[in-house]
Design a protein that fits this description.
- Helices cover 47% and strands 9% of the residues.
- The protein has helices spanning 21-29, 48-55, 90-101, 106-111, 113-130, 136-153, 160-170, 178-202, 208-217, 224-254, 257-265, 270-281, 313-316, 351-368, and strands spanning 32-37, 40-45, 60-61, 134-135, 288-292, 296-298, 301-303, 308-311, 373-374, 396-398.
- It is built from 14 helices and ten strands.
- 42% of the residues are buried.
- The protein has one domain (21-398): Orthogonal Bundle (Cytochrome p450), CATH 1.10.630.
- By secondary structure, it is α+β, with helices and mostly antiparallel strands.
- InterPro entries: Cyt_P450, Cyt_P450_B, Cyt_P450_CS, Cyt_P450_sf.
Length: 408
Amino acid sequence: MAEQLPAYPITERTCPYDPPAGLLALQQQAPLVKVQLPTGPAWLVTSYDAARTLLDDPRMSSDMSREGFPTLYRQKMRPVLKGSFMRMDGEDHAFYRTMLAGEFSVKRVAAMRPEIEQACDQLLDEMIRQGPPANLHDSYGIPVSSSTICRLLGVPYEDAEFFTTHLEALFDPHRAGAPERIAKSKAALSAYLDELVTRKQKEPGDDMISRLVADYLVPGKVDRPELLLTSYLLLAAGHETTANMITTGTAALLMHPEQFAYVRDEPQLLRGAVEELLRYLSIFQFGITRIATEDVRVGDQTVAAGEGIVVSPLLGNRDAGVYDDPHTLDVRRRGRPHLSFGHGPHLCVGHTLARIELQIAFERLLTRLPDLRLAVPESEIPFRTETLVFGTVDLPVTWGERPERTPA
């Protein structure tokens, strides 16, 4: 009788910030462990070094159209990334990376800093004006992320609520009725972007979509569906993850007061603190999927041609062979780079923008509200563990003078 493989994804956590115990148990077995996905067996990559090796190997394909490609969905649906540049290999993938590289260059992203700072301050002004308590996700996390991606792509900010509502559906594929909801939301967003591209053709602005229309669509270097899918992908990837990092990162700091104090009182720690939060949270929790086009040897294990892998940044970022005391949040930590943006040719194209956005968001928040604290007990903060993006979307916070204790 064949041995039953452990089912994956594993989502049940006893502590919100620690990986599931079942996942850590697999990490103790080997750098690569065979697991059962909804689509069949695959290798779960549990170690940092094996993850980097495989993500950098051109024999590991991102092409979801290949037979046997692993997916993490429990319900049958058309994956939203299929056909996008994120699911291309080789020269096709390199073409789109080159197309987008200038938009996410250090120089262009740095030029956005004043606008991001202004947006953060305006949101904090409104929070302070209204007074505590506030739900930080709704009052700060979402609108900071929305305003930044709107500025980048040239999407009118007054439409932010529309696309925020539809984007939320994409990151919860295990919820009942998800295939229908996701298909409906993708269709609505695609129609919106189609109309936006038409407007940019007539009235271009100083934004990414206008430049892509002028430099790639009009000369015929890409066709309209390709441009729409790329714009859709950037909108989705650049919004939900960053908003969630702002909210969940703040929650982590507030639940570790000494770490909050370090970042607040020692501004030079801010950049490293953002990297540590990205490592510690690993909010894209289920993993990165690939399929082998040839046999690939990793240590003592061979991934055979046609076999799929799931690289777990969550486990790689908690590898005790790489990070001392990996389950501890330490904003003073220095060491090897984390895997939260991936690695290799498919390293997140927007990582430069995400990093500066998070640095500014945390810096302005801690500067303007140095006495920020949770408005409810830690045990009452809800965390999402079943969604593609881990974290909390409900963070009640307060600030100002603490109420006096009522005598017993």
